TrEMBL record:
Organism of provenance: Parasponia andersonii
Regions that span the bilayer: none
GO BP terms, alphabetized: RNA modification
Entry's family note: Belongs to the PPR family. PCMP-H subfamily.
Full protein name: DYW domain containing protein
Length: 305
């Protein structure tokens, strides 16, 4: 219950249920703390998160990778990247690539390029063919206007033939194709592939917002980049392509659900809010950490994730 509430953005309810457990003398287990630490992280409750972390240790529960990911995310979200690094350094288990990626995301969020590059270098040694590592680094460079470095990362991905995928789902759909198949997957998008199934580039541009950056800050930064890089930097974000395809192939009131293994970026988050309002559609995006439910121009995360 607590985990379900947390990943769906109902943080206050998650905290209330944890308090009810304590009042009833029900002993929390490791999954309970994953949910409650996640709830604290996504609502910016630093002191509460630290308290639950200490509570977990005092309860004799062995810290897992998932617990550390939640705590690192909590600290980085509050700008406490150095404290998060210290936590990783003192981990009771060996940090795996998931831990390093979470720390890299935290560095990106706080604009700590030097530290982020060191983490990315380590990640690429551990997993030289893992698409998410390259995407995170490319996105990091874009966020700090390091466009040449971003282009080099994209070139490496092409050289290594590394292409991320994202799925878009609609439970009421019938998948188009040579044969009509009843299933819940409308499309699987591989970045860098020609999208003939959407009718070429015209199909992708069905939604005008898909190709355009939404924030004034992003527009200001991107004006220095050549047109092709502008399009690639934001227009090819997989969430946008998936939502474009969902709108192309389904009709209201069908809910569009996008499943991605990366944290949604701020610009795509704004796009989803606008598209949900203009098209009067409910859009659910499952990123690496939680569900985002976009309805009538707002998101259940309340713009904090």
């Amino acid at each position: 219950m607590i985990v379900g509430l947390a990943i769906n953005g109902l943080y206050e309810e998650a905290l209330k249920h944890f308090a009810m457990m304590e009042a009833e003398k029900v002993k929390p287990e490791h999954l309970t703390f994953i949910g409650i630490l996640s709830a604290c992280g996504h609502s910016g409750l630093i002191s509460e998160g630290r308290r639950f972390w200490s509570h977990m240790i005092e309860s004799g529960i062995k810290q897992s990778t998932e617990h550390y990911v939640c705590m690192i995310d909590l600290l980085c979200g509050a700008g406490l990247v150095d404290e998060a690094c210290t936590l990783v350094k003192n981990m009771t288990i060996s940090p795996n690539p998931v831990i390093w990626r979470t720390l890299l995301v935290g560095c990106k969020k706080n604009g700590m390029l030097g530290k982020g590059e060191l983490i990315a270098e380590w990640l690429l040694e551990l997993e030289p063919l893992h698409a998410e590592n390259y995407i995170l680094l490319s996105s990091f460079y874009a966020s700090v206007s390091q466009w040449e470095k971003m282009s080099l990362v994209r070139m490496k991905m092409k050289e290594k033939r590394i292409k991320p995928i994202v799925r878009v789902r609609d439970s009421n759909s019938i998948c188009p194709g040579p044969k009509t198949l009843r299933c819940d997957i409308c499309g699987i998008f591989v970045i860098g592939r020609n999208f003939d199934i959407c009718g070429g580039s015209g199909g992708i541009k069905l939604i005008g917002l898909i190709r355009e950056p939404t924030s004034d800050l992003v527009r200001e930064v991107l004006h220095r980049v050549v047109d092709e890089e502008k399009e690639n930097a934001l227009g090819e974000h997989s969430e946008r392509l998936a939502v474009a395809y969902g709108l192309w192939k389904t009709k209201a009131p069908a809910v569009i659900m996008v499943v991605n293994n990366l944290r949604i970026c701020g610009d795509c988050h704004e796009v989803m809010k606008i598209v949900s309002k203009i098209n009067e559609r409910e859009i659910i995006v499952r990123d690496r950490f939680r569900f985002h439910k976009f309805v009538k121009g707002s998101c259940t995360c309340k713009d904090y994730w």
